[in-house]
Design a protein that fits this description.
The structure is a single chain. The two termini are about 40 Å apart. The longest helix is centred in the N-terminal third of the chain and has 32 residues. Helix 2 runs antiparallel to helix 5, helix 4 packs antiparallel against helix 5 and helix 6 packs across helix 8. The protein has 8 helices and no strands. By secondary structure, the chain is mainly α. It is elongated, with a radius of gyration of 22 Å. The protein folds into 2 domains: about 130 residues; about 80 residues, Cytochrome c-like domain (Cytochrome Bc1 Complex, Chain D, domain 2). The structure holds heme C (HEC).
Length: about 240
């Protein structure tokens, strides 16, 4: 279902993650709410506090599609891997939801203003800042080197969708000591295939990389992927252990 949705977007010409553009809405609105409350308090303008409350209502509404898009991107580009950064992002989104609802309930009462609200709005702000920072870490700009020859376009596409999230530029954002580009698993197509079907760390233990079954990437697609990777990311630097 999720795959079909992204394939549909790609047909329309949109081939990126959908969560990042949506995040501007809740983040911008939380920043606006804090700014308006600050000004309301500073200049004794209670009407601005009402504006702040309206911004928070919109932030709460937009939180839902933004979180849903985050979940879908995570499933599609990171194979739903249960990594710390996603756990933190999930926990922070839950925290933001609670903080927004609390702020909205409290801002209904005249008496609760400023003393309680200002710190609450600041907490909402800090939550979106950390969420945005972690999102920035995931989106490290251009992830897949362009290959000019159309020969590897199939492999490039498989790489972009399945691997580039965690291995931008052939690196490894979750385990920088084990970049894709230097891996001994790239020695030949069979070693590569065996690894991607059942990834293990150099010591033989199960790591964080998700396994890719044939229904996700077929053997033929794996060969295209392998050709693309060895063309753009070169050959092994480390020897097999
Ligand atoms: C959710 C993140 C994630 C995705 C998606 C992912 N990997 Fe990995 N990959 C890792 C991690 C983390 C490691 C380090 C070993 C471990 O913890 O499993 C790794 C290790 C590797 C290595 C070994 C590097 C070394 O130096 O030992 C190769 C090769 C590799 N990945 C290829 C791929 C390919 C090809 C894809 C796409 C089909 C892919 N990975 C998708 C996270 C990911």
């Amino acid at each position: 279902m999720i795959d079909a949705f992204y394939h549909f977007l790609e047909k329309l010409g949109y081939a990126h993650a959908i969560h990042p553009p949506l995040t501007h809405m809740p983040i911008g609105l939380v920043v606006a709410a804090l700014a308006f409350t600050g000004m309301a308090w500073l200049f004794r303008q209670p009407r601005l506090a009402v504006t702040a409350r309206h911004c928070l209502i919109l932030a709460l509404i937009f939180l839902f599609p933004t979180a849903l898009a985050g979940y879908m991107d995570w499933q599609y580009f990171y194979a739903g891997a249960w990594l710390t950064i996603f756990k933190i992002k999930l926990a922070l989104s839950g925290t933001l939801l609670v903080l927004l609802v609390l702020s909205l309930i409290l801002s209904r009462k005249e008496a609760a203003r400023y003393g309680v609200l200002l710190p609450l709005y600041i907490l909402c702000f800090l939550t979106v800042v950390v969420l945005g920072y972690l999102g920035g870490q995931l989106a490290l700009g251009e992830r897949c080197p362009e290959v000019l020859s159309t020969e590897h376009s199939v492999g490039a596409e498989i790489f972009r969708v399945n691997c580039s999230g965690c291995h931008p530029h052939g690196g490894n954002i979750f385990d920088p000591k084990l970049p894709l580009s230097g891996g001994p698993q790239l020695a030949d197509p069979d070693t590569f295939l065996a690894f991607v079907r059942k990834p293990l760390r150099p010591d033989g233990s199960r790591g964080q990389m998700p396994a890719f079954a044939p229904d996700k990437i077929s053997d033929a697609q794996m060969r295209d992927l392998y050709e693309y990777i060895v063309t753009v990311f070169k050959t092994p630097k480390r020897s097999p252990q």
